[in-house]
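Intended use. Records like the one below are meant for learning the mapping from a protein sequence to its folded structure. Do not use them to infer anything beyond what is encoded.
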Amino acid sequence: MPTASNGTVSLYYDRAGEDGADGESVVFVSEAGLGGWLWGWQHAALAGPHEVVVWDLRGTGRSDAPSGPYALETLVADLEAVLVDCEIRTAHLVGCGLGGAIALRAARDLSRVETLTLFGTAARESAFELDPLFAPLTDPEALRDSLSAGLSDEFCESQPEVCDGVVDWRSDGDADRAGWEAQVAALESFDATDWLVGVTQPTRVLHGGADELVSPSAGRDLARGLPRGEFDVLEGAGHLCQIERSRTVNDRILGVLEAHTDDG
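Structure written out for the chain above:
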């Protein structure tokens, strides 16, 4: 089982496409409490032509879960430890919610970030309302009910088999309550508005138009505050729009990679 270490904390990651891949390195950073399953639809589309790394935040899945609260700087250091262990000099970061905040801070603080693709992300803590997404791992009914906070009613009603699969993945790979609270604490006092101007990497901010956890207007404001930010709304989709609109999202991410290659 591949792991990176930040001090005494072991961080699990899955890496694909590294053997002879000539493409770019794409590293995914999950939402608070959610395991690497969140990026399964993107992993399948990108691995092969590109190197893809999905990792579990500390407190989630197969990564260690030291007692919290966790600081945002610590989670950024965890990300850097994964990049170092994978020998990735520069990466395209794709993050959701808390993962988007981690990616933003990494883009400011590290020299390893080429581009950002952010889902359901805002520039300040007050715009995040993530609590409805949590549910006890041993309660399948509660896990399914909590999906309505992250996915649109239309999707949940039309794709019950997908929701059943997500419930199974969550019970196996998400964070428990202690891990969830430790991770969410990293957003306390988060306010990037004063330093967004220093995040000069090309950044695409994607937002579900029906996101109930982070307002689309907050995502639009984030994109406006970035020197090279672009905003893209996926009408009718919820917070986890990378699941609901996976084909569209995959095309957007591939577009970012292609544009970077053309610019290079």
